[in-house]
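Q: I'm writing up a methods section and want to include an example of the input and output format. Could you take the sequence below and give the corresponding predicted structure tokens, formatted cleanly so I can copy it straight into the document?
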Amino acid sequence: MADDLLIPDDDEGCTVALEELLAASGLGHEEVIELVQFGVFRCAQHAPVWTFHVHTVSLARRAARLRDDFGLNVSGMALALTYLERIEALEGRLRELESQLPR
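A: Here is the clean output for your methods example:
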């Protein structure tokens, strides 16, 4: 996978074109379209060129790893990505709550 696409620390408002996403992630065009249809990837702009928030690059790389490491199809990638993001959000919330506990 190409790592030449640098993701800035302050990525607010940063987008990547579909072609950049494909090159950076190793996903195929049809896979990205299906992940958009499943609602896993959200387009920042649809016409005339699809663009995605820069966060989608790391999500797409993770999808490609799931496909390559576990042989998942697109629906499997979508399900796994959804659950992984939910788990990470819950772990973050747990850390936040634990930090508020008296010691």
